[in-house]
């Protein structure tokens, strides 16, 4: 069912687990700033210490070995390596930390997959405009080149940017993620555009300068729910579903895998609405310049983060995943037959992942796919014997196997989110996705494996060659 070289992994990100926010010369990130502001995060939680992985990396490595992972996905804190965001000031303590993590993983026969940007922009660059500034493209490329140069002799799987949709919408449209901006219908499109440009420039830098010797692969990680029409016999619901997929998955995948530009349904809707809003000679959705590195073809694999599914109803309001109602007039609802796990937005729909994988195969020219995030949240009373999550992992991995075997999808790996309970952004430590529980009331941040972690380890043992 799974190929012998299938990647069995789990993931984390720097701000969510490392802590050490001021340790050894690290600069502040936008999430340091955001979480220190009152009322931004549940319970006034922050990532100042988090899982304290900066000091307890060896404990994380023990967890990785206990699961029997073949791969581990981590992110690099840009501000830990380059405190002001530029290569003019390199923090050698940060370099040493990531060198040790990478070397220790390889010594244990675990392959690292490294994300360059997982939401934590250096505050120094945010002060210059952040992702809204055109300068961010070359600033990111310089940072990426530094990482390729420093770690690329050992890292062969790279992700440039994690979930640009979430950064753009939650950080610049809704204001619920750092940097906390609320500029509806404008900033999200600009930020998304600059993230695509930054990704493309870094991919071209790798391809021309580092790939010949390092022989690695580079992509960006896109998040998407699976969407289905509420009424499959209603043409309006079917069309609204296609719009929904275009405005989420297509926003960042279509330019990279299909045409080098945004989906036509997205472009036409935003251009049309922009004219109605009085934009003359321009659209709120920027255009790609022919003078810049091409966007099309800048991914060596398809990195997918999937958590849930939705039904789509034409018109009728603005659902959680929409940018602005006037651009994509549809409503996304949960099917009442789908069970809900810890958080209200996450219905448990393993079959939705299989359907989404098939859609990606058919829509994006049958790419190699890594499922770089997929998980099940727990809220409220701690359940180490998390039976429902055990079933979730069994069912989901079975659907992935069916996608490979029955649908012919070229899935290369599966990464559970997350290795550890960690800082879940605006939800703080309230929401737990870990395969290991972390006791945040304990100064030693003791890690305890959930039953689901034990079950995942058994699944890996069963299929790992």
UniProtKB/TrEMBL annotation:
SUPFAM superfamilies: (Trans)glycosidases (SSF51445). It comes from the Eukaryota. Keywords: Glycosidase, Hydrolase. GO terms for biological process: carbohydrate metabolic process; glycosylceramide catabolic process. Pfam families: Glyco_hydro_1. The keyword Hydrolase applies. GO terms for cellular component: cytosol; membrane. The active site is at residue 373. InterPro entries: GH, GH_1_N_CS, Glyco_hydro_1, Glyco_hydro_1_AS. GO terms for molecular function: beta-galactosidase activity; glycosylceramidase activity. The keyword Lipid biosynthesis does not apply. Belongs to the glycosyl hydrolase 1 family. This is Cytosolic beta-glucosidase.
């Amino acid at each position: 069912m799974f190929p012998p070289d299938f990647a069995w992994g789990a993931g984390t990100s720097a701000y969510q687990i490392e802590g050490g926010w001021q340790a050894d010369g690290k600069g502040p990130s936008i999430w340091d700033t955001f979480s220190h502001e009152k009322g931004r995060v549940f319970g006034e939680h922050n990532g100042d210490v988090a899982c304290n992985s900066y000091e307890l990396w060896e404990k994380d490595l023990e967890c990785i070995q206990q699961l029997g992972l073949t791969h581990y996905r981590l992110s690099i804190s840009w501000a830990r390596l380059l405190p002001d965001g530029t290569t003019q000031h390199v923090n050698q303590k940060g370099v040493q930390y990531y060198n040790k993590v990478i070397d220790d993983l390889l010594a244990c026969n675990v392959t690292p997959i490294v994300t360059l940007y997982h939401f934590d922009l250096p505050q120094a660059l945010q002060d210059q405009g952040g992702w809204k500034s055109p300068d961010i493209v070359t600033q990111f490329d310089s940072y990426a080149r530094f990482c390729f140069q420093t770690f690329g002799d050992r890292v062969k799987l790279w992700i440039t940017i994690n979930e640009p949709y979430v950064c753009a919408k939650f950080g610049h449209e809704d204001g619920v993620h750092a940097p906390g901006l609320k500029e509806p219908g404008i900033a999200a499109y600009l930020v998304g555009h600059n993230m695509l440009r930054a990704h493309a420039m870094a991919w071209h830098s790798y391809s021309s300068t580092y790939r010949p010797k390092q022989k690695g692969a580079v992509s960006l990680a896109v998040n998407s729910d699976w969407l289905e029409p509420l009424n499959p016999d209603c043409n309006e619901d079917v069309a609204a579903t296609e719009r929904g997929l275009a405005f989420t998955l297509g926003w960042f995948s279509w330019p990279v895998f299909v045409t080098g530009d945004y989906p036509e349904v997205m472009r036409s809707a935003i251009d049309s609405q922009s004219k109605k809003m009085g934009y003359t000679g321009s659209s709120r959705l920027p255009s790609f310049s022919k003078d810049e590195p091409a966007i099309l073809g800048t991914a060596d694999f398809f990195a997918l983060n999937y958590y849930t599914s939705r039904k789509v109803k034409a018109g009728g309001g603005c659902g959680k995943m929409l940018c602005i109602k006037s651009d994509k007039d549809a409503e996304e609802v949960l099917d009442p037959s789908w069970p809900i796990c810890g958080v209200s937005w996450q219905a448990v729909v393993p079959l939705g992942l299989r359907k989404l994988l098939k859609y990606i195969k058919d829509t994006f020219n049958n790419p190699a796919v890594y499922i770089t995030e997929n998980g099940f949240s727990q809220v409220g009373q701690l359940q180490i014997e998390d039976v429902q999550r055990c079933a979730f992992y069994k069912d989901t991995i079975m659907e992935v196997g069916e996608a490979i075997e029955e649908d012919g999808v070229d899935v290369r790996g599966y990464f559970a989110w997350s290795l550890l309970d960690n800082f879940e952004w605006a939800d703080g430590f309230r929401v737990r996705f870990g395969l290991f529980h972390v006791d945040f009331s304990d100064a030693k941040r003791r890690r305890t494996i959930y039953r689901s972690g034990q079950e995942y380890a058994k699944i890996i043992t069963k299929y790992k060659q």
